[in-house]
Design a protein that fits this description.
about 190 residues, Rna Polymerase Sigma Factor, Chain: A, Arc Repressor Mutant, subunit A, 2 domains, mainly alpha, about 70% helix, elongated
Length: about 190
């Protein structure tokens, strides 16, 4: 399945490189929501995320010759989105408070340990817990949970050893559980 997806993506990418707009359109439609969700969660601002989404795809077009066909197109896009986000924060020189984005809420796979809590309430609490994470832990968590990016690719995107990426994810999960426990939610795995 994943190999077929990579083949489809490479086919659309080749069309795009050859000036066929349907190649770009297919890749944009296929991945814009996932990349946008990542950018919203990283910046906390939908307008900034929209700008960064456009910059991500423009950077992909400008740097198409750097695409490593042994990687997935989505991982490559997440790498570009990561760099655009870092550039945004570096140039803005501000730390923004992250807001909850209900459309791309984390926690859809987690069942409420307390039947009194709805999944929506639990997702809101998890989103709040995610916002308390260290930026590097939050980024690994979001790449993995929103993007489904493999840890090997996360390590490449974040330019760190795979064990560092895995360690950041473990810390992120530990800190999310700790934050949820503070809020009266215990037993989330």
């Amino acid at each position: 399945m994943q190999e077929q997806q990579m083949n489809d993506d490479q086919h659309f990418f080749d069309l795009w490189l050859n000036g066929k707009s349907e190649g770009f359109s297919a890749l944009y439609e296929k991945y814009k929501t996932r990349v946008f969700g990542f950018l919203v969660r990283m910046t906390g601002d939908r307008e900034i995320a929209e700008d960064l989404l456009q910059e991500t795809f423009f950077a992909a077009l400008r740097n198409a010759d750097q695409f490593d066909r042994s990687r997935s197109f989505l991982s490559w896009l997440f790498g570009i989105a990561h760099k655009r986000t870092i550039d945004f924060f570096r140039h803005a020189k501000v730390e923004t408070e992250h807001k909850q984005d209900a459309e791309t809420a984390i926690g859809s796979k987690i069942e409420a340990p307390d039947q009194q809590l709805s999944n929506q309430d639990l997702r809101a609490l998890i989103n709040e817990a995610v916002e308390t994470l260290d930026p590097l832990q939050r980024e690994v968590f979001l790449l993995r949970e929103l993007g489904g990016v493999p840890f090997k690719e996360i390590a490449k995107i974040m330019d760190c050893p795979i064990n560092t990426a895995l360690g950041r994810m473990r810390l992120a999960l530990k800190n999310i559980r700790k934050e949820l426990k503070k809020r009266g939610i215990d037993g989330v795995q």
